[in-house]
Amino acid sequence: MADYNDPFQEARAKCPVFSGRFQAGEIIPMILRLKDVRQAAKDHEKYSSDAPRRVPIPSEEDVRTVRQYPLEVDPPVHAEYRKLVEPFFLRPRQPEVLEKIHNLLDGLITQALEADKTEAVKEFAIPMQSHALTYLLNVDEKEADLWISWGIHVFKDGDGKSKGPFMENYSREMFEAAEENPGDDFFSALNQAEFQGRKLTMDEKLGYANIAFAGGRDTIIHTATRIISYFADYPEDLERIRENPKLVNTAAEEFFRLFIPLTHIGRVCPVKTDVHGVEVEAGGRISLCWSSANRDPEVFEDPNTTKIDRKPNPHIAFGFGIHSCLGAHHARAIMRGLITKLSERVERIHKHETQELIEEEADYTRKVGYEKLFVTFDAR
Amino acid sequence: MATVTFKQEDGSETKLQDVSGNLMEIAVDNDIAGITGDCGGVCSCSTCHVYVDAAWQEKVGAAGSDESDTLEFVDSCKPSSRLGCQIEVYDELNGLVVEVAPTE
Question: Do A39 and B36 touch (CB under 8 A)?
Answer without folding.
Answer: no
